[in-house]
Amino acid sequence: MSFRLYNTLSKEKEIFEPVVPGKVGIYVCGPTVYKDSHIGHAVGPVIFDALKKYLSYKGYQVKLVINITDVDDKLIIEAQRLGISIEDLARQVSANYFEAMEKLGVNSIDVYPRATDHIGHIIKLIQRLGENEAAYEVDGDVYFDITKCRDYGKLSHRRSEDQMEGTRDLAGAGKRNTSDFALWKKSADDEIGWDSPWGRGRPGWHIECSAMSMEYLGETFDIHGGGMDLIFPHHENEIAQTETATSKPFVKYWMHNGLTRIKTKQTSGDWSEEKMSKSLGNVRTLKELLAEYPPETIRFFLLSTHYRRPIDFSDEAIVATQKGMMTIYRLLERVARITDEDVYAHACDVAKMEQVAQSDDDKQLRDAVTGGQLRYLEALDDDFNTAGGIAVIFELCTRLNRYIDQQRLELQENPSAKALALEAARMISTLGKIIGLLEKPLEKADSGAGDELAGELMELLIELRRDAKTNKNYQLADTIRDRLKQLNIALEDRPDGTGWRKE
What we know:
With 503 residues, the protein is of the alpha/beta class. Helices cover 47% and strands 15% of the residues.
């Protein structure tokens, strides 16, 4: 099956054919670094990091660029409020953002260009527009003449007049058309600015992304991504100014991810939803979330929804995701314990599965695994449906757990069945790795003195519960189990003994 993507420009799924065969360029609008990033700022990077990993798996050479907006009205206002320089504010917020991305496994980004490092490229692009009579100066401000773009609105199907709503641009006196947007803004004496042919100033929002994307990916590239709230006016204006400057198609495929919504339970028991936004004051920062939940949980949560659908965030949703995710990790841990092998170290050996599958049960598991692999890849090929792919992984886990129980692999020696179970588990890990999941066992807590003591205390409680059951004191045994559950510690009664884990 060919890889297909939904193109916002055409409003339909299209077979993916890169501009240059075998190579893919992707540009994603990143954060404006004036306040700590929230989970909504992780959606795009996680999705497009996973997309790059998948395209690389398919054999493409991929370059992924995510920009950093480090000069903007919001940065100026926030820096003044805090009494620090814009540079220091941008540096601090960027550092926190990069730390969060590293924890979330967003490790395939090739370039994080900063707007302030590309002022020269921005000025040259504005000059090109001036040469095409599409840019004009008014008292130190430079505007794009929207009448020079004949097909304005082809991405959003909105009129140019609509961009007066929700745009960051200042109204500006002396503009030719009310919808003309700023390419360069005159800086006040006490504001950040750079010398230019039009005087001291700073770039407009839209021109930054056009200049940076072309610098790293060329005048026409494959995929431009971002949140759906950027379709208009930001991406529409990028298209207008870039294609007017170059007379070439700017981007072949436009990918837009759904926005993050906060779900809040009301006193009536109903749930309300609203867009997550710094301006609404309803954000949970990535730093806060990563202190509460494993980063694998957050990445799993973000990829468990199709990228074009809204992500409904709540602590209940995160906890539910973590419980589901842990069923996969527990299975992989179970297979590792049964086989005494590292499940994550190697990819699945399908040929070995063919060799060791002997009984009808073996062959049914083999077919389920190889069929699951096909369905997983088909899901990703169909508009990068990671949610559908993850659903396949859960199905394989259910099937493998059932096989282990049927064959009683924790109680008896069956080398061929154990080898088959190992390869099936490795297939589950292999599929997850394609999009940056299930790459290694979940990290244990640091093994300091406190953790050693906790382990010893758990062994003592398990022993007390075992003695209680032996003496038919089932009430005490159940009390120990239930009280531990209240502390988010689950006991697992296995054929080879009782184990425990944190939930």
